[in-house]
Amino acid sequence: TAIAPGEVVSLFGSGLSPVTDYPNLPFPLSDKGVSVTVNGIAAPLLYTSPGQINIQIPFEVAGSSSVTVQVTNNGQQSNTVKVPVGPGDPGIFMWADSTSSYHAAVLHANFAPVTLSNPAARGETVAVFATGLGVLSPAVPTGAANPSSPLAVSKDNFVGVLFDGEPAASVSFAGGAVGWVGLNQINVVIPLDATTGPNVPIQIESSWGYSNVANLAIQ
Q1: How far apart (Å, rounded) are the C-alpha atoms in residues 52 and 63?
Q2: 84 - beta bridge partners?
Q3: How many Å apart are CA 43 and CA 3, to the nearest integer?
């Protein structure tokens, strides 16, 4: 699928970086001699390793139909890869439990994570964490943390969440998660008649299509 401006993506290959590193905020455009360009624009580096690099796609590529991505490792340039670009590409983040089962990255209103032992409830407002909601308003500079005032909201004309195929009761916010780079947050009310269980499938629906499916514990 197409990538989106501002989205967090992972590049996979070999010889991408001399070491594994987790840069701190503000995320650098070069780390340990490693940089990544997207249509010639330096991308913020969130994680670097010999086999994988995580970057934020620059917002400046909005409106492009495709971009060319290239890695430079201490003067050595990789092959170039052409990737399609769209206005949005929603994807729900997930975390793995002790059994290596994956669950949607969702917080209760008190900021506690939704887990099997601390499930969400019907009618509750939860925050779903994702990436790929595209350009935000007001505009957030590439590599900058999402602001708290005013909140940066998605310019898409529709963002929703499905709970086992049923639309959320309401969506009060869809945009940049405050203080984070490339991370989106969707505040939704779980339907009163939502399916319950330890692994209820949830999915973002938007004007650009649907996200991956992730599991959520609902009681």
Answers
A1: 27
A2: 66
A3: 14
